[in-house]
Every structure is written in C-alpha cells, then in structure tokens.
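FIELD: query
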Amino acid sequence: MPGQEVPAGLHIQIDMATGQRQARLMPAEAGDVDNANAVELNAGAGQEVLAVNHAYTDRFQELIERVLDAGAKSVDRSANELLDEQLDELKELVYDPRQAERLLRTPGAVAALLQLSSPMPALQAWAASTQRLSSIIIGTTVQNNPELQAMAYRLGAIPSLLHALRDERDAKTAGKHVFALSALTRGHSLALEQFINLGGFRILSELNPLASVVYKGEIEASKLDLRIVRFVEDMLNPEFNPRVAATSASMISQFAGVWCSTLAARLVDSLEDV
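FIELD: result
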C-alpha cells in the first residue's frame, strides 16, 4: 500500500508498468540450509552421546550392585566365572576418575570389595582370581588421587589388605595385594603410618616368593619381589611422601636395608641351585 513501510530483509521489486513496489521473502541461502542441517546433525549426535552415557552409567551401576550382592553373601564358587567377568569389566571402568569416585562413594562398595579380596576367617575364601581382581580395582580406584585414598583409608582398606597379604599363599595374588597397598599409601602419610603401625613391614619381610612349597611359579615369585621393591622405593621417595614422621622414615630405611639384604641372599641361593 502507498506509504507503508517495508520491513527489512524482504526482496523489493518495482513493476515498471505501474510503478508499484512489490515485496516478498528472500529465498533461503544454500549456506543457511547447510547450517540448519548441521544444527540438526549436532543435535542428533548429542542425543546419541547422551544415550551412550546413560547406558554406560546404568551398566556401571549394575556392576556395583553385583559386587555389593557378592560381598554380602557366602562364597558361591558356581558363580565365580561370571563374577570375575563382571569384576574385570569394572576394573576397566574405574580408570575413569569420575567412576572411581562414584564407586568409593557407594555405601558398602569398598567393604564388599575388601570382603571379596580378603574374606573373614570364618568364611570360605573366594577363588584367587576374584581376590586378585578385587585388589586391582581398589588400587586402581585410589592411585594418584589423595581424596579417594583418604576415603578408602577411612573405610579400613589398610588393615583388611594386610590381613589378606599375611595369609596369602599365592605369589600372583600377593602381588595384587601389594599393588593395592602401594596405591593406598603413596603420598598419603596417614595410610603409610597405619601400614607401619599394623606391622606391614613384618608381613612383607615374611613373604618368601621363592619358597616353592608355599609359592608356585618362579615368574610370579620374581614379579612379587619386584612389586615389593617398587613399594619400598615409593616409600623412600620424598616426592611421594614429603610429610612422613622422622620415626617412620627411619623404619622405612631400616626395612629397605633388611629387605635388600634378604633379596640379595635369596638371589644368590637361587643361582647356586642352577
């Protein structure tokens, strides 16, 4: 109409015969269509990622519930293979710090893992493979994470693992318990103090991986020796344990000397048998 304002963004055309102006919407640009399609694709991809995250979270919860269930019951060897498969899957998931924290914050989860790793004396022990996986999960969950170390420390992980290590007669399984103890104490002075006060050095010194009557397999025995050496090395490293009390530091040094002498003597004996 004459005098009517034309909104911005319209295509203007003048009829040369009548002199009238005509306005119509601009056609969609190719780039606009591409952008719209990109937004739609991104939205679809976001929904797929969300669905995967939900499935991932649900599966993690299922595995935790399985651990809680197994830890609360007496040993069922018929279910051992399936339990080990689930523990192995859980072991891979806790490399993600968010899932590791979620595991530790689940009431009863650490106690259940410790139960699987070190059953109470009155109960029949789970298979060695189950005990190993449980200790690996505990160690993997807390390693290099002070907050999670503190949580596991408060939940009694150190005494339980020392109990397991004291009674263990399989070198491969003992090595996993040592790994978990090392992960718990590295950089955590309170956990290291508790390890020392509860006789951790004595228990380590009583391990004799090359005693064939007790420990089977020279390769696993050598791995256990190496694991203990690395554990002691971490204790002596001020970068890992800068706030260790002077008394504890002295005990660590003394044990390191005794352990190295014992290890050297054992290696010499093994060479003489060749």
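FIELD: remark
The longest helix spans residues 30-72.
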